[in-house]
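User: As part of a screening pipeline, I want to sanity-check one entry by hand. Below is the sequence and the SMILES for adenosine-5'-triphosphate. Please return the complex as structure tokens so I can compare it with the automated output.
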Amino acid sequence: MSSDTVISVRGLRNSFGDQVIHENLDLDVRRGEILGVVGGSGTGKSVLMRSIIGLQIPDEGEIDVLGENMIGRSEDEAKNIRRRWGVLFQNGALFSTLTVAENVEVPIREYFPFIKPPLLDEIAGYKIAMSGLPANAGPKYPSELSGGMRKRAGLARALALDPELLFLDEPTAGLDPIGAAAFDELIVGLKHKLELTVFLITHDLDTLWAICDRVAVLADQKVIAVGTIEELLSLDHPWIQEYFNGPRGRAAVASRKED
Ligand SMILES: Nc1ncnc2c1ncn2[C@@H]1O[C@H](COP(=O)(O)OP(=O)(O)OP(=O)(O)O)[C@@H](O)[C@H]1O
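Assistant: Here is the complex for your manual check:
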């Protein structure tokens, strides 16, 4: 694995009963890039992310993240590797009985139990601000936030341990176009400031064009192509052509030209 590769997946196989999701799937994610992951519904984008972060044990394959082999590690070893990344799950996955600040503090308390208030609150406040939330969001409960604010709260928690790598599962799903564009900008800004590598599952064509350095396409149980959108457009695959050159794909291009 080259030092520029932060995630390397080789020969991945995942199945649930008779249903094979991935077969012989390979993927590399390069340091410092935002890699978009696209594919039809049910092609296994989330299962791929869950395999990489160790929440899904594959039938076969090798997965290296940040130079560490992820398969067959003890719980203690896995925990040490896990602290080097942050994850924003599709629904935000916030604890509903905790405030935003308390949610952000959960991973900090887990890994650094000696950090006590007021330093703990100060760190949480800093992460909340970084995620573009107003300071008064800290004491609020998730149910008191808009969808966009909940995503930002989830992002603040994902950033809690100063990750090197960020996993985002459909972060702009359910946001209006202005909210989605603002979230995209936030991700790019954080990527530059924090020198992050980002693994981003999305259906959002605007997001793909606006912020992704490369895009990986999942189909037929594997990654069928990886490249810039321009590179993908030159491929003669029906799903890729329909996705990027269909009406929605063309609308995304047209709206970029208006900007
Ligand atoms: N824990 C599980 N048990 C059984 N089947 C599962 C499980 N998790 C996922 N699947 C199945 O695996 C397939 C891939 O699911 P996954 O959520 O990864 O798709 P996806 O590409 O992320 O889809 P979407 O774009 O709709 O979110 C689906 O058919 C799903 O039903």
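Points to compare against the pipeline: The chain has ten helices and ten strands. The two ends are 39 Å apart (CA to CA).
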